[in-house]
Amino acid sequence: MVYHDEYTIEQKIKEDPTPEEMLRIIFDYTAKIANERHLDNVLMLMANMGREMIVSDRCSVWLVDKIRKELYTTVAHGVSGIRIPLAAGLVGHSIAMGEPIFIDDAYSNEPYREVLDNGALATDRKTGYRSKALMVVPFRNNDGDIIGAYQAVNKMTVSETFSQKDLEYLTLAASYAGKSLESVQLHHEIEETQKEIIFTMGEIGESRSKETGNHVKRVAEYSYLLAKGLGMGQEECDLIKMASPMHDIGKVAIPDSVLKKPGKLTEEEFDIMKAHTDIGYGLLKNSTRRILKTAAILAYEHHEKWNGKGYPRGLKGEEIHIYGRITAIADVFDALASDRVYKKAWELDRILNLFIEERGHHFDPRVVDTFMEQLPKILKIRDDYQDIIEDHG
Ligand code: C2E
Ligand code: SIN
Ligand code: SIN
Ligand code: SIN
Ligand code: FE
Ligand code: FE
Fold first, then answer.
1. Distance 300 CA to ligand 4 centre (A)
2. How far is the CA of 344 from the centre of ligand 5 (A)?
3. Which one of 6, 189, 342, 390 is most buried, by most CB atoms within 10 A?
4. CATH architecture designation of domain 9-186
5. pLDDT tens per residue, range 111-156
6. Is 158 exposed, middle or buried (0-12, 13-18, 19+ CB in 10 A)?
7. What pTM value is reported for the model?
């Protein structure tokens, strides 16, 4: 699609949509957006939806990149994908305040003179476009954090200014955008993360026979159930589920003679083994991806104990990240419920007794209580993801 910059407001006077037209716009676009998994396309559809709803000349959807402290949009009307500093411009201003901004004429507006002069008006000077009415509406994700904003430029009806109704419509579009963009971004992030993991593993240059894939799935599912049971938000639960399979990634660097030893480890061997926490952390900590950052915490802290007697740092109580306290239980439950090269699986009663004994010692008491509450679901996961045959050769 090509957007022409040359048309002026005078050339294209339009009407606000009737209520029936408004409904059609909303239904058509939300149906398309729900089926779209590519961030670029979702942003474009949202921009188009916003533009049709409020009859603006241009509309763009900006997202916050928290790490780089930038705003970015992949495509927008009149602009190709760009990044700007978060602090710059009207959009950044609106996001910082958490409030919509409404401007009738960019050239005579006083309160935002400086912001406009460096933003929209500076762009006008370069492109010859004439910005007049501007409106920015920030939007939030399911956790209530502001993750981006809608920006509309120039009202195409005779009024040439945005109305209170337009603000309400764009706010409606924005509340929908916040919810759907989060799931697209998560999807995007999963793909990027997968690429990064493959790369990281390749760098290590090692292909080790790992514990079965089902083991990794179970730890992920248990961690998810515990996070849910603790009342954590959906997004965070998903994050923990995606990151927890990587908690033992540092084991790739542990020699086979230790990792696969059929019997009990000596003290020296166990010291070598303990390094898998620091090694995993070292591999993951520099990533900017949320999933890998979470995985770095898990790798580092899943062997810490509530009473301070764990490793590698001997953290105590709530000094241990809640993610670490969750995956500690998921990991030990699965280790005990499965055959390992060095031990047979334990009976359920024996495992539960250990958890009761270790409540407030090895494990966070709250997480143990949650584990007990979630036990039926946890046992269902264990049964659904059974290891068919374990080959310990
Ligand atoms: P893993 O097999 O995934 O076990 C994870 C954690 O589950 C262990 O962390 C421990 O807290 C718990 N766990 C596993 N098996 C038992 C058990 O028989 N009794 C009790 N009370 N707890 C158990 P830990 O001890 O820090 O071990 C970390 C990793 O070191 C283990 O991961 C495993 O890969 C390795 N490892 C530990 N002990 C031995 C051993 O005696 N022989 C071999 N070959 N590897 C061992
Ligand atoms: C994107 O541009 O699609 C993602 C940007 C980022 O995560 O840094
Ligand atoms: C903004 O004003 O924040 C967006 C950038 C621009 O319109 O130049
Ligand atoms: C693995 O991720 O390869 C093993 C996980 C575990 O032992 O808990
Ligand atoms: Fe471990
Ligand atoms: Fe483990």
1. 14
2. 18
3. 189
4. 2-Layer Sandwich (3.30)
5. 999 999 988 898 899 989 999 999 999 999 878 889 999 999 999 9
6. exposed
7. 0.60
